Amino acid sequence: MQQPAPDPDQPQAIDRRGFLGAVAVAAAAVAPVPIPAQAGAAPGKPLGPSGVPIVVNGVEHKMDVDVRTTLLDYLRDHLHLTGTKKGCDHGQCGACTVHVNGRRINSCLALALAHEGDEVTTIEGLGAPERLHPMQAAFVEHDGYQCGYCTAGQIMSATALLDEPCGPADADVRECMSGNLCRCGAYSNIVAAIQQVRREGGR
């Protein structure tokens, strides 16, 4: 017996096979079109200009990095200066603090290529085991660290603070150091170390 022709004015039932076919067609229609990679660059890794100069701890380096590379990752992964720590990677803990042209910054928030020609100082460039910076020596004397993970960032911030407007009281120092967190809670010892260096005029 011949089936009657479907009425175009009536909604038609759809089986599972038909539904999946319709979904596949719709997905293909909105699929993103791949963009050709930049010549000479790995897919998804846009390279920056080659040979961009930066001075780190008094030594000039030529950067040849992905444009998204942070200053923190450049220091750690390319120059192997691992004293600068990666803590939160969001600019909230201060473990990655370094000096750029004499001022402290969170290196996890800075792009390496944005610092063309700048002078960067890390904890490795501040002092050496046989010749500690006065702030490093004060941290040792006052036990200004416990686990030590935040210590490099604390010391880099503390030495920058010596050249910043900061009141004389302990509370003033705590406020100026509020961007550096110590999960071990060695804050009173850190403040004592900083205040000693300030009294003695250490640099």
Automatic annotation (TrEMBL):
Signal peptide: none
Domain called 2Fe-2S ferredoxin-type: residue spans: 50-126
Pfam families, per database record: Fer2, Fer2_2
Keyword line: Iron, Metal-binding, Oxidoreductase
Domain of life: Bacteria
This protein's name: 2Fe-2S iron-sulfur cluster-binding protein
Native source organism of the sequence: Pseudoduganella chitinolytica
